[in-house]
Amino acid sequence: MKAYFINRYQKAPATLTEVAEPMVGDDDVLVQVAAAGLNHLDLRIKSGELKLLVPYQFPLILGHDVAGTVVAVGSNVRDFQVGDEVFARPRDGRIGAFAEKIAICQDDVAKKPANVSMTDAAGLPLVALTAWQALVEIAKIQAGQKVLIHAGAGGVGSVAIALAKHLGAIVATTTSTANVDFVKNLGADVVIDYKKQHFADVLQDYDVVLNSLDEKTLLDSLQVLKQGGCLISISGPPTPEYAKQAGLNKLLQGVMWLLSYKVRRACRQKQVDYQFLFMKASGGQLAKIAQLVEKGHVTPQTQEVYAFDEIAAAFAKLQTGRTRGKIVVAMRN
Ligand SMILES: NC(=O)c1ccc[n+]([C@@H]2O[C@H](COP(=O)([O-])OP(=O)(O)OC[C@H]3O[C@@H](n4cnc5c(N)ncnc54)[C@H](OP(=O)(O)O)[C@@H]3O)[C@@H](O)[C@H]2O)c1
User: Which CDD domains match (predicted)?
Assistant: First the structure.
């Protein structure tokens, strides 16, 4: 089968090559890939930036988001059968969505929402799970709470706005002038055009902030949070608690203690809880997200679909940092 893989960490695009089909373990479903979503995580893994956090062996097929059809199942698989249309964010250590087929642990897979296309479904898993784990698992958002979601027009931001609205929150978001109407249409109640205003001059007494931007934005976000609020960052810095949970060694736990010292100290002074999130695969959560999609509470925001062999151009677009929603590559059948 054809797949995009790397033989070493590199900045250059991955190579499209013939590789052997994946082995199907007892707990795996083998998925014929229809479409795969692009994420910054693919680029960070490819360049080696995350090699201490998420180490991989080579050759490595990239790709963290997939939608497709089950073509085989392992002997322990009960909930999926050949012909099922599914979507998944395969777990760390077992990525490989940029291929004609991928074997995924059944625990990471969910049935695709029936009302969306394969390309729309392929853009959802990683960003929707990130939003779920931030807003439902960590923040435990209650109706009426005030939530600031930075970069509302992006992949994570666009789904996080919809999820926070579904949970009953009052949602503020930051975006550029060009995307003000886009985020309003997603349901944002308060839109801060960062070209014209600084969010900290406008917002106050927020319960939760979801940060996906730089450290200055993270620290400025403290100004809008109320005492007892929750600051969640998906763009770092990682905390020693995260390092421990992730099973990283004492040295890395120490590095993360140092990296996050400034923000943790600032949060302590303001009596705000700081949490770093590195999202995890979860078929169970993805099944709940699929229900939200089927009920119309969350709508996939696919900006552009590229052909599989145009993946380098698709990543170049993602790297502009100016995309709305998701970029997806589709297989030609
Ligand atoms: N830790 C985790 O588990 C995890 C999971 C998912 C993603 N991430 C990370 O989170 C970050 C966001 O991911 P993503 O997939 O959402 O990225 P993305 O889709 O590429 O985000 C692009 C969006 O960011 C907006 N943006 C850029 N600068 C902005 C600013 N200063 N203020 C407000 N909006 C701004 C842009 O809107 P405008 O054009 O309007 O500026 C654009 O719509 C990435 O660094 C990614 O690696 C981490």
Answer: MDR_like_2
